[in-house]
Specification:
By secondary structure, the chain is α/β, with parallel strands linked by helices. Helix content is about 45%, strand content about 15%. The chain has a single domain, classed as TIM Barrel (Alpha-Beta Barrel). A 6-stranded parallel β-sheet has the order 3-5-6-7-8-9. Helix 1 packs parallel to helix 7 and helix 7 crosses helix 8. The radius of gyration is 16 Å and the shape is globular. The protein starts with a strand and ends in a 6-residue tail after the last helix. It binds fe (ii) ion.
Length: about 240
C-alpha cells in the first residue's frame, strides 16, 4: 500500500510534532505493509502554514536520514496538501506536487468554492487535481462529485471514513462514493502517530476489498498511485 496523504513531517504544520513521533508513525506504516508515503504537509498561508518547497524538502531529507539510521523500510516522497486560495496559481508555484508528478492535492475545505472552475483553470496549466477528502466538504453533493470525476478530477477519500470514524455525514458520502467506484485513492491524512495510520489503511483496504473487489482495492490503495504519481515504474 501507498499512503498519498500524510502529515508525517515533524514540526511543519498541525501534524506530527517531532522526529520521534515521525519515526513511530513510520514504524507503524512498515508493520502494516505500507511501502511508500508521500509527505503532504499543509501549504495554507491563510492558516499560518506558509511552507515552501525548500523548507519541506529539508525536513523530508532529515526524516529520511533518521529513518535509514533506524532501519525503517518505508520510502518517503515529497508532496503537499494545498488549501484553496484566491491566488492558488501563485501558491502552487512554490508548493511541491506529489512526487513532482504535476498532480496536486488540494483541500477545498469548508468554504464553498467553484471546484470545477478552479480545477479547469489548473488543468490549463497542466496540473491534475486530487481533491483531499471531498466527503468532508459539507456543501458537496454526489452529483457534483460525479461531474467532477467525469471532468478528470481525482478523488482521495480518507480511510477513517470507510471504517466507522469521523462525522456520520462524511462516512455516508464516502460509502456512496465507494459504491459508485468514484474513489481514486484512499489515504490516511494522518496527523498523529497514536492513530496508527498503517493499521487504519490496512483495515480500510480489507473493508473495500470485501465491499467491492481485490482489483479495485489494489487500484485505490496502490496501483493508481503507482500509475499517476510514480510514472508506472514503482513496484
Ligand atoms: Fe491533510
Amino acid at each position: 500500500m501507498i499512503d498519498i496523504h500524510s502529515h508525517v513531517l515533524p514540526g511543519v504544520d498541525d501534524g506530527v510534532v517531532d522526529l520521534e513521533e515521525s519515526l513511530t508513525m513510520l514504524k507503524n506504516y512498515e508493520a502494516a505493509g505500507v511501502s511508500a508515503v508521500i509527505a503532504t504537509s499543509h501549504v495554507a498561508p491563510k492558516r499560518g502554514y506558509a511552507n515552501t518547497r525548500q523548507q519541506l524538502e529539508k525536513t523530508l531529507n532529515r526524516l529520511k536520514t533518521a529513518a535509514q539510521q533506524h532501519h525503517i523500510n518505508v520510502e518517503l516522497y515529497l508532496g503537499a496538501e494545498v488549501d484553496n486560495h484566491p491566488n492558488l496559481k501563485q501558491v502552487l508555484k512554490d508548493a511541491p506536487s506529489l512526487n513532482d508528478s504535476g498532480v496536486v492535492l488540494i483541500d477545498f475545505g469548508m468554504k464553498q468554492a467553484d471546484i470545477a472552475e478552479v480545477c479547469y483553470e489548473l488543468s490549463l496549466l497542466d496540473y491534475t487535481v486530487i481533491l483531499a477528502h471531498p466527503e468532508r466538504y459539507f456543501y458537496i453533493k454526489m452529483d457534483t462529485i460525479r461531474a467532477l470525476h467525469k471532468q478528470g478530477v481525482l478523488m482521495q477519500v480518507s480511510a477513517p471514513h470507510l471504517i466507522g470514524h469521523g462525522s456520520k455525514k462524511a462516512q455516508t458520502l464516502a460509502k456512496k462514493m465507494l459504491k459508485e467506484k468514484l474513489i481514486d485513492f484512499v489515504a490516511t491524512d494522518a496527523h498523529r502517530a497514536r492513530f496508527a495510520p498503517g493499521d487504519m489503511l490496512k483495515k480500510a483496504y480489507r473493508r473495500v476489498q470485501k465491499k467491492t473487489s481485490t482489483l479495485y482495492a489494489e487500484a485505490i490503495f496502490k496501483e493508481n498511485a503507482k500509475e499517476k504519481l510514480f510514472g508506472g515504474t514503482r513496484t
